[in-house]
């Protein structure tokens, strides 16, 4: 289908026109839409009737119907369509009902990739944490995300360095799906080194195409991670981290908060430890999340088409920590050559990795 064959929904154009109107945020736009029944009717209403809507100042009301904004909305839809990006309007088909748990759902979403789930509470789990993650936390995140993905859970995160990237990558490596919420337009990948990873994810943003990342966008993005997940797992983060903001939004949405215990006294453990004291679900394995949400258990990774030797070697590696070749041989009962071959194949499959002569699960 070419851009000329694409006929945008008038209501979607009207929603975007309001989205581009200065002084109108998500709550004001929704108040207007509910009062008049549709965004189209809002734009058609005279100023006298617009003044009937409580909570709007004269300056904001006067900006409604500003010349050029409707054309800007049409151009934005054409740009998105040309790039293969869906624009979803609140109240229209395809807009995820899970976002209605927020106090301020965005009037429009830009989506690149698969359709978003429409369940009120989707089979999805957010995994968030610090960009400057410890090696232990990254290892744990990969193990957790892989287990959730193998159980058919959509892993949701924010594409940032550290915990976010590890969660997305591990979900894909396990053959699952993953969704990234961005603090910029879906046509801009930030950080740039995640371009290859992003190409395999569903990307979602409340910001128009070509919007650059900005500091104040990321706390806003975190509320979408919380709402589009049945629960959010906080792996590492200090008390003022974005991960803690996500946890706050999850609670406001009535979602479950999970927290991973860390080392006592360390700044990056402070966030999860506070959440645990306040009643978050202590999380050490994917099964802790799955069972809390009533979703059963994670299938074992070694059950996915491994040879008997590979299964023995994989089972010989602990969930957390690394092992020397001799340790793996002793536990598996295989010869040196059999163990080495199995380790090589498991590494190629992305199930394990080798670091400095030691082997560990991903």
Descriptive report:
It is a single chain. With 362 residues, this protein is α/β, with parallel strands linked by helices. The chain is built from 16 helices and twelve strands. The strands form two sheets. The protein has a nine-stranded mixed β-sheet with strand order 1-2-6-5-4-3-7-8-9, sandwiched between helices. A three-stranded antiparallel β-sheet has the order 10-12-11. Strand 3 (124-128), helix 7 and strand 4 form a beta-alpha-beta unit. Helix 1 (10-19) crosses helix 6, helix 7 crosses helix 13 (286-292) and helix 14 (308-316) packs across helix 15 (325-332).
In short:
42% of the residues lie in helices and 13% in strands.
Task: Write out key terms for the chains shown.
three-stranded antiparallel β-sheet, single chain, nine-stranded mixed β-sheet, 16 helices, alpha/beta, 362 residues
Helix fraction? 40-55%
Total helical elements: 16
Large-scale geometry: elongated
The separation of the N and C termini measures 42 Å
Beta-strand residue fraction: 5-15%
Order of helical and strand elements: HHHHHHEEEHEHEHEHEHEHEHHEHHEE
Overall mean pLDDT score?
Answer: 90
Arrangement of strands in the largest sheet: 1-2-6-5-4-3-7-8-9
Give me the count of strands: 12
Rg over CA atoms, rounded to whole Å, is 23 Å
Low-pLDDT runs = none
SS content category: alpha/beta
Biggest sheet, open or closed, and with what strands and sense? Answer: 9 strands, mixed
């Amino acid at each position: 289908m070419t851009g000329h064959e694409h006929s945008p929904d008038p209501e979607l154009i009207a929603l975007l026109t309001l989205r581009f109107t200065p002084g109108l945020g998500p709550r004001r736009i929704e108040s207007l839409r509910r009062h008049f029944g549709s965004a189209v009717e809002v734009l058609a209403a005279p100023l006298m009737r617009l003044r009937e809507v409580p909570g709007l100042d004269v300056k904001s009301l006067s900006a409604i119907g500003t010349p050029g904004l409707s054309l800007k909305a049409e151009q934005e839809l054409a740009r998105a369509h040309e790039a293969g990006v869906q624009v979803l309007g609140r109240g229209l088909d395809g807009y995820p009902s899970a976002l209605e748990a927020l106090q301020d759902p965005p009037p429009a979403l830009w989506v690149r990739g698969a359709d978003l789930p429409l369940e009120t509470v989707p089979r999805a789990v957010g995994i968030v944490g610090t960009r400057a993650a410890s090696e232990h936390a990254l290892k744990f995140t990969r193990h957790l995300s892989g287990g959730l993905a193998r159980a058919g859970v959509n892993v949701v995160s924010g594409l940032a360095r550290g915990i976010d990237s590890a969660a997305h990558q591990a979900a894909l490596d396990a053959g699952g799906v993953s969704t990234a919420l961005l603090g910029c337009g879906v046509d801009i990948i930030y950080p740039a080194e995640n371009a290859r990873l992003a190409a395999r994810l569903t990307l979602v943003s409340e910001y128009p195409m070509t919007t650059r990342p900005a500091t104040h966008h990321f706390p806003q993005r975190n509320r979408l991670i919380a709402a589009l997940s049945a629960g959010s797992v906080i792996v590492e983060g200090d008390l003022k981290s974005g991960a803690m903001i996500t946890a706050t939004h999850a609670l406001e949405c009535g979602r479950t908060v999970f927290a991973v215990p860390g080392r006592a006294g360390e700044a990056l453990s402070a966030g999860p430890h506070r959440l645990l004291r306040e009643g978050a679900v202590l999380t050490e394995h994917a099964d802790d999340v799955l069972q809390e949400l009533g979703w059963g258990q994670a299938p074992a990774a070694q059950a996915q088409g491994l040879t008997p030797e590979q299964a023995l070697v994989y089972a010989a590696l602990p969930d957390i920590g690394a092992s020397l070749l001799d340790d793996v041989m002793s536990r598996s009962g295989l010869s040196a050559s059999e163990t080495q071959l199995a380790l090589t194949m498991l590494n190629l499959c992305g199930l394990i990795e080798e670091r400095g002569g030691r082997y560990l699960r991903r």
